[in-house]
Design a protein that fits this description.
Layout: H1 3-16, E1 20-25, E2 30-33, H2 35-41, H3 45-48, H4 63-73, E3 78-86, E4 92-103, E5 109-118, H5 120-155, H6 161-180, E6 194-195, H7 196-204, E7 213-216, E8 221-222, H8 224-244, E9 254-261, E10 264-272, H9 287-300, E11 303-309, E12 312-320, H10 321-325
Parallel strand pairs: 7-9
Antiparallel strand pairs: 1-2, 1-5, 3-4, 4-5, 6-8, 9-10, 10-12, 11-12
Length: 327
């Protein structure tokens, strides 16, 4: 294959690449700009060629180009460097960058070629994995807290080990029944729905003992899609109530009320207790609170807020009626 054919093949690869392929001189001025760069950064070749490569750099990344030029001058190749660049419309895009020195016929370094790949999807996947792991850790921690809370409640009402085991088995079974309603069956069958009262009562009842739980809930059916996010939220509230709230040894009980207002379903969870959050800061939102807020917002078209007063804590769950009931 002669040099002309090789050059044609190389040009075809550059033109057809999904990645942005850019060349620049040692003064950081853009010399070439392929269609992939046009798609990634939004500038046409006419707009980009002759401009400084730093037009793509966010203000806090300018030092990177100084480092690149220094390393290129030493003949170094920079591979898979993850950074952020700025598109023509001002939006930022995460990229993986490979920078290689370009030499003339005499072997002198005269510039660099850059290959930039959009890693937005990769970053999104990594973030989802991070959140899933964080949620898993939180759930595992809450599971131990649930077991501890159940033991504390059951122990106060059991006269011997056999009775304690029986009570624990009954209460864990009740919670398992609620969980089973939130999981798609291996056959692919959708989970069955449940009433709002049954959902809340099934979660709260295992935690009650000497302290009371007053439920005033209308006849509302919760659709299968809403069971998981709403269960997560109720579990979070119940677990916190057992640890240091209205269902703890020093608590004075809880009450849960719900009403429909036009296209909204409003649920209020009220605790009579010493009104101090675990961290001591009423404005602090831990992972459980943030997870609850996210679940309510993304899956149920609503909001989740907490208010502390000398009389106790009130959590308000404001849901879209259709998202919660499927009607």
């Amino acid at each position: 294959m002669d040099a002309q054919i090789r050059q044609q093949h190389l040009a075809a690869i550059v033109e057809g690449s999904d990645d942005a392929i850019i060349t620049k001189n040692l003064d950081s001025v853009i010399q070439s700009w392929n269609p992939g760069a046009e798609r990634l950064f939004g500038y046409s070749a006419d707009e980009a060629v002759g401009q400084p490569i730093t037009m793509l750099f966010p203000a806090d990344r300018m030092d990177e180009e100084v480092d690149f030029i220094a390393r290129l001058s030493r003949g170094e190749r920079i591979a898979h460097f993850e950074t952020v660049r700025k598109r023509k419309d001002g939006t930022l895009v995460p990229i993986s960058l490979t920078v290689s020195p370009m030499r003339n016929a005499d072997g002198k370094i005269i510039g660099a070629s850059k290959i930039a790949r959009d890693i937005t999807l990769k970053r999104e996947v990594e973030e989802r994995q991070r959140l899933l792991l964080a949620e898993m850790r939180h759930r595992v921690g809450n599971s131990f807290a649930v077991a501890s809370g159940l033991l504390a409640v059951a122990a106060r009402h059991s006269n011997n080990v056999a009775e304690l085991v029986a009570v624990m088995r009954q209460r864990l079974h009740a919670l398992a029944q609620v969980h089973s309603r939130t999981v798609t069956h291996p056959s692919g069958a959708e989970p069955e729905g449940t009433s709002l009262f049954e959902l809340v009562n099934s979660i709260v009842e295992p935690f009650t003992g000497e302290v009371s739980a007053k439920l005033e809930l209308p006849e509302v059916d919760i659709c299968p899609a809403a069971i998981t996010p709403l269960s997560l939220l109720i579990f979070e509230l119940a677990t916190n109530a057992v640890k240091y709230g209205g269902l703890s040894a020093s608590g004075k009980g809880i009450s849960v009320h719900a009403e429909r207002f036009d296209d909204r379903l409003l649920i209020r969870w009220e605790e009579a207790c010493i009104s101090t959050p675990a961290c001591g800061d009423p404005s602090y939102a831990g992972f459980g609170t943030r997870m609850s807020q996210s679940a309510v917002s993304s899956s149920l078209g609503g909001t989740f807020t907490r208010e502390f007063s000398p009389q106790g804590m009130t959590a308000t769950i404001d849901l879209n009626w259709s998202s919660a009931t499927g009607t």
